[in-house]
């Protein structure tokens, strides 16, 4: 049996690898000619790590991941530590480490595993049709592909989504802008083995270690949509938004390279009750586009891939039956992740200032148990707990 996978990003490549591991043939079609990952890095939490381990990528992932042994929140004005704790209790409870990884490195790892020469680049899907025996995808260049089933991993702007859900997808602006990139590790800004976050004024500045002696950094600022800001104004914009913030934040702003710093207006999409129609299944951002506030967007796509392959492999009542069971196993899980991220977004970014201020006060009393417990609950909901 052959699967057509639309999308060569994280979700699509994980799906192709998982399906081939389960004995299916795959063909991957990617719209762009060269993949340029959106965002500088990704935090792969233990539920995602286990999925990549399942795909045989344990050693490669460990080489790419940063050593995030501790987690800390710091006051925005003076930089003093509000709370700091070890990630060890989380690792011991769920059985795996988290790995912050540069997105380009992760994408390269997945392509190398699958075989980059096998991916059909420059193939932007225009529409699909299915019948009793399979699915045909047509591309804007006039070519077509046919398989026994089709996996739509074509991202948050999915062309295929409406065919499955039967409804248009309204992207919802989450209310904030995120700047992100990579810089060399500088321990005068933050420890090299720690996820460090400065918080205040409904804003965040965060640093995570990745391989290659680098920090992944991001800045979050609640802002209206459509401001005339781009890479030419990055340092001036961040200097203005973070005026009065602690010295390490100012040092980070001075260190960043505007030409490699991304500016993204953050959106999500209300969860869909349907992820499958006949022989077509949504996967990753095509099926559940979320804000990055709990770091589960990429991990959820990895989970999708594993559940999809295991469900197809372990059921024998036909493709459509197995895909319905995939939907049943994933719909509530991904809905929970999207809404959990949305709630965390609102608290972190000052949607209700009094709630956000109360959170800042709670951090001063935080021992790590409450935060790690919330992470554990999210992680153990994955398919490889």
Automatic annotation (TrEMBL):
Which species expresses this protein natively? Mixta hanseatica
- InterPro entries, from UniProt? FAD-bd, FAD-dep_Monooxygenase_BioMet, FAD/NAD-bd_sf, HpxO
UniProt keywords, alphabetically: FAD, Flavoprotein, Monooxygenase, NAD, Oxidoreductase, Purine metabolism
Alphabetized NCBIfam families for the sequence: urate_HpxO
Q: Look up keyword Flavoprotein and say if it applies.
A: yes
Q: Which reaction does it catalyse?
A: urate + NADH + O2 + H(+) = 5-hydroxyisourate + NAD(+) + H2O
The enzyme's first-digit EC class, named in words, is: oxidoreductase
According to its UniProt record, in which pathway does this protein act?
Answer: Purine metabolism; urate degradation
Task: List the protein's name.
Answer: FAD-dependent urate hydroxylase
> Could you tell me which Gene3D superfamilies the record lists for this protein?
FAD/NAD(P)-binding domain
